[in-house]
Design goal:
Layout: H1 2-14, H2 16-29, H3 33-37, E1 41-47, H4 54-65, E2 71-78, H5 83-99, E3 101-111, H6 113-118, E4 123-126, E5 131-133, E6 139-140, H7 145-150, H8 175-200, H9 207-210, E7 215-217, H10 218-224, E8 229-230, H11 233-244, H12 256-275, E9 279-280
Parallel strand pairs: 1-2, 2-3, 3-4, 3-5, 4-8
Antiparallel strand pairs: 5-7, 6-9
C-alpha cells in the first residue's frame, strides 16, 4: 500500500507542471457563469457509437428541466449503438419536444440507434451528403473457441437455466440458443419500426420501404419520409430560432475543450464496451 501511495505522489510531483497547465487551459476556455445563464437555445452533440451515453442523457435532462431554454438543436453524426441507450435518448427527446422545440441536424450519418434517438424531434434536417436509415437490429459476438484451444484454455461452466449461456463466445451457438436470440431481436426490431412509424407519421404496413435496415442518401430519405428537409447547419439553427419563437435568440456557447475531452473518453469507453463480448445494436 505504501509503495502505491509513493508511486502516486511521484507521478503528481513529476507531472505537476503539466497538470497545472491543463487545469489553467480548462479554466481559460470554460464559459463564465454569465455566459452559461444567458442563453435560450442549446446544442447537443451525438458523435460516434452510442454505447456510453451518460453525458448526453445528463445534458438532455438539464435542458428538459431548464425553462429558460426554448429550443434545442441535436447535431448527430453516428452509426448508432446500444439499443437501451438509443431508446433512453429517444424517450427524453420526446419529452423535451412536448415542452420546447427540438430540431435534429444530420451532419454525417444518422443511422440505426442514432436515428432512433432523433425520431421524436419536431423536424429532422440532413446534410445533402449524409447517410440516413439503417433501421434494424443486430446481435453479434465472437467465437474464440479455436483460439482458446490453441493456447490451452477451456471454459468451465456451472449454470442453472437452459438459456443461461445464450451469446457465449466459448463455442458455437446451439440451434435453440440462436432461436432465443432471434426471438429477442425480432421484438426489438418490431419496437424500433413501430416507434419510427408513429413518430414520423409513416404507414407501418409499408415498413419495408423505410426500414428493413435500408441505407438512404439524404434525398432518398426525404422521399420515404425519414427526414423533413436537406440543408446546412445554418439552416437547422435558423429553423430552431423560427420554431422556438424567441425574439432574441441566444445560443449556448460551446465549451469546445470540455466537449473534446468528453468525446475522447466516450469514444475510448465505447470501443471497449463494443468489443467485449456480444452486443445488441
Amino acid at each position: 500500500m505504501k509503495e502505491k501511495i509513493k508511486k502516486f505522489l511521484d507521478f503528481i510531483r513529476n507531472h505537476f507542471k503539466a497538470l497545472l497547465f491543463l487545469v489553467f487551459v480548462i479554466w481559460l476556455f470554460s464559459p463564465s457563469e454569465e455566459e452559461v445563464k444567458d442563453y435560450n437555445l442549446a446544442k447537443v452533440y451525438i458523435k460516434g457509437e452510442i454505447f456510453i451515453a451518460d453525458d448526453i442523457i445528463d445534458e438532455l435532462r438539464e435542458i428538459y428541466e431548464n425553462d429558460e431554454i426554448r429550443g434545442v438543436l441535436l447535431i448527430i453524426d453516428s452509426v448508432g449503438g446500444a439499443v437501451d441507450k438509443s431508446i433512453e435518448i429517444s424517450d427524453i427527446v420526446k419529452k423535451i419536444a412536448k415542452k420546447k422545440v427540438v430540431v435534429t441536424y444530420a451532419s454525417g450519418t444518422l443511422a440505426s440507434g442514432s436515428y432512433y434517438s432523433a425520431i421524436w424531434s419536431n423536424e429532422i434536417i440532413a446534410n445533402r451528403g449524409s447517410l440516413i436509415g439503417s433501421i434494424g437490429v443486430i446481435f453479434s459476438g465472437f467465437n474464440y473457441q479455436q483460439l482458446a484451444e490453441k493456447i490451452g484454455i477451456s471454459p468451465q461452466v456451472v449454470k442453472m437455466g437452459k438459456y443461461k449461456e445464450v451469446g457465449t463466445g466459448s463455442r458455437e451457438w446451439l440451434p435453440y440458443e440462436e432461436e432465443e436470440i432471434e426471438k429477442v431481436i425480432k421484438d426489438m426490431y418490431k419496437t424500433f419500426v413501430t416507434d419510427v412509424a408513429k413518430a414520423r407519421g409513416l404507414d407501418l404496413n409499408r415498413s419495408n420501404e423505410f426500414a428493413d435496415a435500408h441505407i438512404f442518401t439524404a434525398r432518398q430519405a426525404l422521399g420515404v419520409g425519414l427526414i423533413d428537409a436537406t440543408g446546412t447547419i445554418i439552416d437547422a439553427e435558423k429553423r430552431v430560432e423560427e420554431l422556438s419563437g424567441v425574439t432574441n435568440p441566444i445560443w449556448e456557447k460551446d465549451n469546445e475543450l470540455d466537449r473534446f475531452f468528453k468525446s475522447i473518453a466516450t469514444s475510448f469507453l465505447g470501443e471497449i464496451t463494443a468489443y467485449l463480448g456480444w452486443k445488441v445494436r
